[in-house]
Amino acid sequence: MSATLVKPVLYSYFRSSCSWRVRIVLATKEIAYDQMPVNLVKDGGQQLSAEFQAVNSMQQVPALKIDGVTLSQSMAIMQYLEETRPNPRLLPQDPKKRAQVRMISDHIVSGIQPLQNLSVLQKVGEKKMEWAQHYISHGFQAVERILQQTAGCYCVGDQVSLADVCLVPQVYNAERYKVDLTPYPTIIKINKALLELEAFQVSHPSRQPDTPPELRA
Amino acid sequence: MSATLVKPVLYSYFRSSCSWRVRIVLATKEIAYDQMPVNLVKDGGQQLSAEFQAVNSMQQVPALKIDGVTLSQSMAIMQYLEETRPNPRLLPQDPKKRAQVRMISDHIVSGIQPLQNLSVLQKVGEKKMEWAQHYISHGFQAVERILQQTAGCYCVGDQVSLADVCLVPQVYNAERYKVDLTPYPTIIKINKALLELEAFQVSHPSRQPDTPPELRA
Lengths: 217, 217
Prior knowledge:
2 copies of one chain form a homodimer.
Chain A: E1 9-12, H1 17-28, E2 34-37, H2 50-55, E3 63-66, E4 69-72, H3 74-84, H4 95-111, H5 118-124, H6 128-150, H7 162-176, H8 185-194, H9 198-202
Parallel strand pairs in A: 1-2
Antiparallel strand pairs in A: 1-3, 3-4
Helix pairs in contact in A: 1-3, 1-7, 4-6, 4-7, 5-6, 7-8
């Protein structure tokens, strides 16, 4: 069977915000895929197993098996999907607008999420709630300021883009760590509008194959 | 004067690894620019000043004023330069190879550097050396494994790419935090080859306008 006929496989964890990003893109582009749950908590983290290392040497989710290769890192995966399955577009065609989308995305992907991910909070220990709140609030201050320059209905104008794909899972994390979102009215407004869209709903952590019954929507 | 005739201005700090990435790309593409130093240590961090916030609402370096806009986030800046000044290319044309380049870049940009940057280490306090070593070593283990699949002379094959641009400043940080690099022979070899190239030399932290005399090469 040729690589293009094989359904992609997403290695994912229901609550991983980076996994959710990729699920949104797959849903937006209507790409059918199978999902393989990797539990980041059970057995000391199944992503660290020898079995999973053979799939993804980076030992992280998400990983996407597609077109005969296995990709990791959510931004790399999403941009690969954008370049090989461009409809509908999640990056604008104008280079300056693309840069705006990437600025917002990268600020979340590099500037916020890594500082509040599971393994870092485990290392931080008892002060983890305060630590997560600090980095999410601090990061959202900058995101709110830039959105005031770029936003329409969504993060950059009126088209859904990768910036939106990164924003919604980060707001989900913010709520999980009880961050006060009142100072970020633009983020609140855009997040609400995005959660109306089907691609953001079907990919939601509350609706995945590995979502525990008590967290199901 | 039209935007394209105005020399770009890079807001940069000599020792910021994210700033160095952008300086490498500007040098590789032979783009003339002016540099405005922003001292991340002096005055409690000049990037936090109201004056600099007016330049870059994200209050971070690097920021690049170019073509009438100000961009921030190193990956967003570098990809903007790649899309508007494609010669020489720093992303391969094949989508799978581009994904490899982005996987390595993003692993450094999102998975390593944010966890050992100045503001995080200040928050970590007295255990900062051990903390930085932990995250750099852990990240380099994954980078070394993936490089064993992708590398030629450089990170992905024999062409310099954004992955190389991200790698060299991260190795510089590793050395600064006295990380034992022995377990990463591929990283060592590629870093050495890259440091032979002029674009990596002229952009080096030891040769910037704001490099203190005692750290000059």
